[in-house]
Amino acid sequence: MKLHTLVNHLQPLVPFEGENPDILHIHNDNRKVTEGSLFICIKGFTVDGHDFAENAVKSGAVAVIAERPLQVDVPVVIVKDTKRAMAVIADAFYGQPSQKMKVVGITGTNGKTTTSHIIDHILKEAEKKTGLIGTMYTKIGEDVLETKNTTPESLTLQNIFHQMIEKQVDCAVMEVSSHALVEGRVHGTDFDVAVFTNLSQDHLDFHGSMEEYKRAKGLLFAQLGNKFTLNQPKYAVLNADDEASEQYAHSTSAHILTYGIQHDADIKATNISMSAKGTTFLLVTPIGSSKVTIKLVGKFNVYNVLAAIGAAMALGIPLSVITDALSIMEGVAGRFELVDAGQNFTVIVDYSHTPDSLQNALETIKEFAVGKTHVVVGCGGDRDRTKRPLMARIACDYADDAIFTSDNPRSEDPFAILNEMETGVSGRKYKVIENRKQAIYEAINQAEKNDIILIAGKGHETYQQIGKDIHHFDDRLVAKDAILEKNKA
Description:
Blueprint: H1 3-10, E1 25-27, E2 37-40, H2 53-58, E3 61-66, E4 76-78, H3 82-93, E5 102-107, H4 112-125, E6 130-133, E7 138-140, E8 143-145, H5 154-166, E9 171-175, H6 178-182, E10 193-196, H7 204-207, H8 210-222, E11 235-239, H9 244-251, E12 255-260, E13 267-275, E14 278-285, E15 288-294, H10 299-314, H11 319-328, E16 337-338, E17 346-350, H12 355-368, E18 373-377, H13 387-398, E19 401-404, H14 414-422, E20 431-432, H15 436-446, E21 452-456, E22 463-466, E23 469-472, H16 475-488
Parallel strand pairs: 1-2, 2-3, 3-4, 5-9, 5-10, 6-9, 10-11, 11-12, 12-13, 17-21, 18-19, 18-21, 19-20
Antiparallel strand pairs: 6-7, 7-8, 13-14, 14-15, 16-17, 22-23
Helix pairs in contact: 1-3, 3-5, 4-10, 4-11, 8-9, 12-13, 13-14, 15-16
């Protein structure tokens, strides 16, 4: 594609008069630049891409997009905001791929990963070829790619969409983080369905306040489109039991489907019955009612299932296909995942890393617990510090035995993080074991018959970041080893 053609998408009222080279690739990392590349200078938190433009040209860049003039021997297109420009350029360069398939975006504090996997499963059972983008990985059909962020930056995202189109994907299901919405990573993405799970405290280190956090989530619905098409309607699927949904309903012109348990909703679950092995409920929808049995546990997972049902209905999937798919779905890795090594007590690994998700997990356990409830929990470093005492308090409030430990301390002193957790539980009963492996072993060694242990915070993660070092660490494998050792004793 010619540079002028790309730039016309970017600033059609200000024609670019410079040279017009062929653009074969687009990069915002000078280390990836090859011959025929367009290099986009992005100001990051620690480095400024403008400082690497000369290196990019030496590596073969034939044009540069920047926010200021640069002394390089190739055309430089000056724009006000290179991040915004990158989204427009990427969408155009890759042929506007999101317009060629169905795209479902899911935002909210908790439940995005589980909901995305449920939707993906339903669509597969409906014989659709799917793509999945989220916290755990990116999947194109059955091909799995590593993921760096929950929602990739716009250049990477549009490239992934392009690959999906080449592999004839019918529908892409993606998690959309509040960071991504604020930073414009999904600008240019043509969503057909936007799903809201819930809103509770998280990421206040980035957003500053709950009001700003709520506003950030609402951007997904404000960007959902502003036209009514009979054959291609757009839907906002909103949680009727979360008050933030009222604001999001006002933010969008799309059709609205609501789901819930407590309040009136288009899609509702009643007569919920729960055990340690699964959940059943009566599903009531505008197109019929049906008894649903799932292998997922907890009221929060009923909400995730209802959200997924709403998205599937919006995409035109028959109710019978939806309910049949749900009945055979297994759990999602690291989301209330059971670790079974023949022990006479229950061990659950869960990604719950916010106050609300931790409380949901522990409340769910209390509904079927026979023995004592134990929890191993920590808080990540370089993240929202205000939730640390809240997490500790919830652990002590809802568990019989709480052990505070390290999560991913990153650049922070793990003991400083633990000290901040302890400020929320002065005078309460708990243990502090900084070493996460030792903490898990301690919980398992003291567990008795019919007890339940929740290992919270890391879920599917297979690493622990301490300082700049990344260590292999999987809560599920550590727990299994601890159980096997206990069984031998």
